[in-house]
Amino acid sequence: MNGHELLQKHISKTVTLSDDVFEYVLSHFKEQHFTKGQTIISAGDKVQHEYFVVAGCLKSFYINEDVKMFILQFSMPNWWASDFEALYSGEKAKIHVDCIADATVLALSNEDREKLCREIHEMEHFFRWRTNKGYVATQKRLLSFMNNNAKQRYEELLTQYPQLYNLVPKHLIAAYLGVSRETLSRL
């Protein structure tokens, strides 16, 4: 399935668009290719795009003053990635986004997303729905950190996203779970 078909299928799970309207929506996305290890967003950047992942895997992460990495999200096909706070506020990025594997994405500028929302009610609904799902996922992850031990969080992650185990190096899964590589090995 190519990127256009994947995006159309993704959007159609929430709203119905005619082929002509979808082609218009698609015209606002730009396909981009990145290689494993390549940085898409660095802390301090001005962020102008969000990225729909077509192939590969991205990670969104934060590095604190002690140079400790905290992984916020892995983005696989059908997922979106960006520093959304920076994208929506115009402030500089606080997080990094890079490629765990070679990746193909469809980039959508903040300006074009807003334009599509103004012009096409269904797209406004789609982006609101997508944002709501993101809030729910973030809330679930926070509650898991508050209520579950590392083993329970690891099992929950592999149950929800079994494909991560083969896509993502174990040290990155450990960083996502907030444990050391050694602790992950014991799990």
UniProtKB/TrEMBL annotation:
Pfam families: cNMP_binding. Coiled coil: none annotated. PROSITE patterns: CNMP_BINDING_3. Residues 17-110 form the Cyclic nucleotide-binding domain. InterPro entries: cNMP-bd_dom (IPR000595), cNMP-bd_dom_sf (IPR018490), RmlC-like_jellyroll (IPR014710). It comes from the Bacteria. CDD domains: CAP_ED. This is Crp/Fnr family transcriptional regulator. It comes from Fluviicola chungangensis.
